[in-house]
Every structure is written in structure tokens, then in C-alpha cells.
Amino acid sequence: MYNTSMKHKIKISILAVELIIATLLFGTLMCVVNSLTGYREFKQELENMYGDITIQLAKTAATYIHADSIPYWLKHGTDEEWEETNKKLDILTNTSDLAYIYVSVISPDYKQRTYVFDTVNQLSLAAGSKVIPFGTVSSLENKDEEYINNLRIVLEEGRDYTSFTYRDEGGHVTTAIPLPNTDGTTTTILSIVKPMNEVREHKINFLRSIIISATILTLLFIALYAFLLYMGIIRPILFVTYETSHLAEHHGELTGLLKKIRHRNEIGKLAKSVEKMSHDMNKYIEDLTHATAEKERLGAELNVATQIQAEMLPRVFPPYENHPEIELFASMEPAKEVGGDFYDFYMIDDKHFAMVVGDVSGKGVPAALFMVITKTLLKDACAHSINPAEIFERVNTILCEGNESGLFVTCWMGILNLSTGELNFANAGHTAPIIKTNGEIKYLSTKPNLMLAAMDGIPYTNHQLTMKRGDCLFIYTDGITEATNEFDELYGENRLLKILSSVQGKGKSPRDILDIVRNDLNDFVLEAPQFDDITMLSMIYKE
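Below the sequence we write its predicted C-alpha cells.
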């Protein structure tokens, strides 16, 4: 409640705050009246001067660069011409007191830029600035619409663009010009940044004269405005200030002091807003506490789901000590906490061995749940048949029942007769596996049937081939071939076939084969994020 000690505390604060607020108020008023015109002219003249200088420097830097060589550099790397050009730009940066010069190629969708040159002034380097290496790709998706529109002005309209940034220590000017190719197209921008070192000194001199005149005028009016400030502004503001501090320190509670403010102006509205804020904050804290607890619970459940999914997939290799003719290794890496890819293998009876790899549409928890159902149904159906086509038809019928979510799953299943080497397999819209046989590595291409759970009553086709001792089968999901690097290039089937061909005849185990493919995939995507689950299974039919 509002008591005597609180009242004394507020009175003591008014004696100091009243003079400060009055001085700032009238000082600011005088500064605005006396300096508006002068400051506008000062700023305009400064910008015109620096704008002309930086445009000339940018055009000078452009003469050093052969724009048609830029695509070659980005594809093949730097060469002597690049080194010579970079040296010239570096000299220009330091001799002209520029902060830095950088040249970058903007992607057609304006989502990223690739740096070709970046030269930084020696003083900036000493202050901690870094040179951006050649070929560095930077995202533009965090830039605002104005920034992207300025890029369009330079690239699409071929016009120069200049902007000014002001800080307490001075400021800098940024100028960007296009670098057109000889065919008239433009994807490259040359930008220079020059510090405006004189700004701080002019600003200090300008403000010094304004502060002196404003202070003299302000002192003349302090006595007149002191009472008005106290009764109309300072006292209500101090009440609001005390209550907001009390609100922050006591978890949204108020003392009731704001009820003494009966003004109908903005301060009165502010007092009512603080009271409403107290009520809303208490409710928000309650809701936030509940939401945080719920988020932690969901996070813990997702961790458990990740562990459960990993434990559902076979992880013991080699899988069967009493079947040395089977040498196998498999892996699944989800793109999120849980994924929709799966693999499975099991002995149906003493001589029939089943292998399954599938990919559920979508990602996350819904796909993972659908994956569990599909994997379970497939294994259960193998108890009734050793024909992959019949197994798919049975599972497809069950999955289509009540599939209101519209999920589907691509799947490849093969059943190998360990005695004869006869492999029966069916493909439900899945990527074709790769087989090594007779010294040749090729895709096991057949016309795929429709995905499971896409439509009820679909027939599936059974295919056959005979595997020889030493033949190797590699089954995977499209998370490999459709992986993209930072240039949005696909890994592709040809590269996968090429890397598998490179290990042919080298006695590599299935685990080695998967490691080689994963390492090659990592070398391709580099820092690009993983957007899809990655699943691989390799099996060698041994003596």
C-alpha cells in the first residue's frame, strides 16, 4: 500500500528528477529550433561529397575486374588473374582509405550471395575485421525487403546505389555498382564502404554550440515550468515509474498508487494501461509456465521416441552367426528427431532371408508412427507368404483402411533363397537398388508399382533373379540421391553408381561400403543441412 515512507521516497526523487526533465525538455526544444536547418544542410553536403567520391572509386575498382572471368573462378577456383585483380583492389582499399571492397555474385532468386573478392583496410584488420574467403556463400534470406530491392536496382536496372549509415563515432557510406558481362547480363555487384571520419568532429562542434545556447534559454524557463512539470507530468510519471518497478520486482503485483492519478490525458491512460498490463502479465506468466513445462515434456518424449525408433531397427551385425553366407550392414539417419525411413531383415524360415527398405512420405512423428506400422505389417505378412508381391498386396490393403492422413510409403522387398541364390523381389514406388554381379555394377531396374497405402486393390509384380556367390546388393532411400549441396546441386544416381564402382573388387565389407558412400555424401553436401532421412543397406551373398 501507499504509506509514509513511500511518499517520502517519491518527494526526494522529485527534487532531482524535476530539474533534469525540465532541462532536457527545453534544451531539446531549443536545439531543434536552432539546429534543424543547419543540420539538414550539413548532412546533405556531407552525403553529396562522399557519394561522388565513392562512386568514382567504385568505377575505378570496376576497371580492374574482368566480369566474364568470374563464372570461371567460381567453377574452377582462383588463378593468377584473380590474384592480380585482388592485389589491385587491396591497394585501392588502403590508398583510398576505404573500409573494404567486396565483389559478390547474387543468385537469381536473391536468396544467397557468393563472395568473389573481399579486401579489407589494414586498420580495419588490426581492429578485428576479417577477410571473407573466396567462394564463401552467404544467405540473403535474413535481409529486409528494402535491402533486396536495392540489389534489384543494381542488377536489373543497372543503376548505382548509395546508402549512408551514421553512428556515434562517425559513419560510413556504402556504394554498389553492377559489373555486367560482355553479353549484357548482370549477376555481379561491386560494393565499397568508406568511413566518414570527419563526421564526429563536425558533430561535436555543432552540438557544443547548440548545447550552450539551449542551456541559457532553458534556465530562463525552468522556474516557470517547474510547478507545471511537477503537478502535471513529473508527479504522475513518478507514480507510474514506482508502480512499474514494483510490478517488475513483485511478479506483476501493484500497490494501488496509480488510483491517485485522475488525469484524463495520455498519462492517465498510461496509468490504466499499467494496471491492465499487471493483470495481463500475471496471466501470461501462468500460461508461459504451463507452456514451458509442456515443451520440456514434449522434448523428453521426442528423445524417448528417437531412442525407441533406433532400437526398433536391427542393430546387431553380423546378424546371424549360423548363416555365414549372409554378410550385411545397414544404417538409418533421420533428418529430424525421428524419421520415416526404415530398414529390416529377418529369416522367414531356415533358407529364406528377407530384406526390406522403405521411405514414408513426410517427416517427424507422423511419418515415424506410419513407419512402425508398415514395418510391423510387412514382417507379420512374411509369416503367411514368401512372395514379395503377395506380401505388398496384403499390407497395402491394411494400410489403406482409415488412412485419413494421406500418408504413403515407398518400399523395396527382396526374399533370398540361401540355398539356390534365387532372389524374389517387388518394388512399391521405391528407388531401384544397385547390384554387383559378374564383375558389373548396375541398377536393378524394373518398372515399379504404386506406393503402399496410395490406393486399395493395386496388384504388385514379383521379379526374380539368381544371385551368385560374392554378389553384392545395395538398397537405399532417395535421401542419398536427392541430397543437395550449397549450390542446390543433387548428389544424383550417377555419382552413387560411380562411388560404388570405385570399390568393386577391393574386398570391402558392407560396413566399409556404407562408410565410403556416407563419406562421399558428406564431401558433396559439406555444410548444407540434411533435409531427408538417409537409409542404406548392403548385403553380400557369400560362400
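Residues 122 and 128 are 10 Å apart (CA to CA).
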